[in-house]
Predict the structure.
Amino acid sequence: MGSQEVSTVDWQGKYVTVAGLGVSGIPAARALHERGALVTVVNDGDDERARAQAAELEALGITVRLGDGATLPPSTELVVTAPGWQPDKPLFLAAAEAGVPVWGDVELAWRLRGDNGRKAAPWLAVTGTNGKTTTVRMLASILEAAGLRTAAVGNIGVSLLDAVLGETEYDVLAVELSSYQLHWAPSLRAHSAAVLNLAPDHLDWHGSMEAYAADKGRVYEGNTVACVYNVADPATEDLVREADVEEGCRAIGFTLGAPGPSQLGVVDGILVDRAFVANRQKQAQELAEVTDVDPPAPHNIANALAAAALARAFGVEPAAVRDGLRAFRPDAHRIEHVADIGEVAYVDDSKATNTHATEASLAAYDSIVWIAGGLAKGATFDELVIGAAKRLRGVVLMGADRALIHEALTRHAPEVPVVDLDRTDTGAMSEAVARAAELARPGDTVLLAPACASMDMFTNYNKRGEAFADAVRARADESA
């Protein structure tokens, strides 16, 4: 199916099982029920919240089965699943055995776009291990600067179903897609798409790095204009080569160096385009300055180049790229400058929950007191420490799996002083900031980039970042 074609399904009387209550399951159940499908929702949990959600759906005439997400209901013709449900769950194995297709929320949204005469907006899709949300929000800012009706949707928090079925008729959508979502989206065909980077993540869900990469690579299938890849990460270009795209679709690289033909890159502090110009062998188009990107850290420049490539693939003029990047402000807890105290910068990158994101964060500063630790999720830290050792003034560790980082530091950076906080209570962050301040010297950056998940100590990475910022501001008030 070409990317501009709209799939039509006769839902009337179709038996559909929706797997999982929640942010994707409930809207999916409602949308399918409204179109005449006979919907049964199955859910593993049977708590008070699930019962309240079930009651609302049952009032509409939707069947809900709580505490049993494993059994395939009789007569099921289609399963629509929440993206987080693992492929080896008994429900999906039973569906495969019965020849019943399984779609995710993204696949359903793709099939329903253009429903009831709505305009089917093209999708510009972004995936990758790190940087997805920032890139999609940059892309939406650029598209808005070009005067286009758009929204940042998908894994970013705004439901794709809401976007495609709502009242607003968009010109184009900036879509963040996780590997989970792509796994369950067999017919998705984007206008253009980018894979920002690939590093081991969610391997417990996918089963292997090969399977994880293959699911990421699905974003390129059927692209019509551009497959955007990272020159510094050859695995992303490999995925482009393997993709079955529409005739005429081009491979477009982005690089922090000087770009070759069909690439976007950086020359003398200027973001330039040698892909979407009349003579890409000899010409380059200035798009923006590095200083237009907030913050101008290397990995964030890469995000900006990927967003610019997708926007240019959609025909956006250079001035809109510049204006959109200037207007963009990053989300909280993503390399967020909190304060300067005594010529020491304090930066919150609590969103750096894996080693790949932390590697990029550490590379943005020359002399660092690093605050790290939490739940390692099976990660190892040797390569991260080897790459960052020369930048480390000191390290403060906390959290359940801090010993793994400490061991890597002992092996590869034994000269770097390490403070090991033997506590996992939320108050540990104040002590971590205080100890980091003792290690820091004028010109240093105290950087929270944990390389780990937060749930051993905090509800989420947001709460962890807020605890860091509160501790820093309290210290700033004391020194004022």
In short: The mean pLDDT is 93. The chain is about 35% helix and 20% strand. The first strand starts at residue 15 and ends at 19.
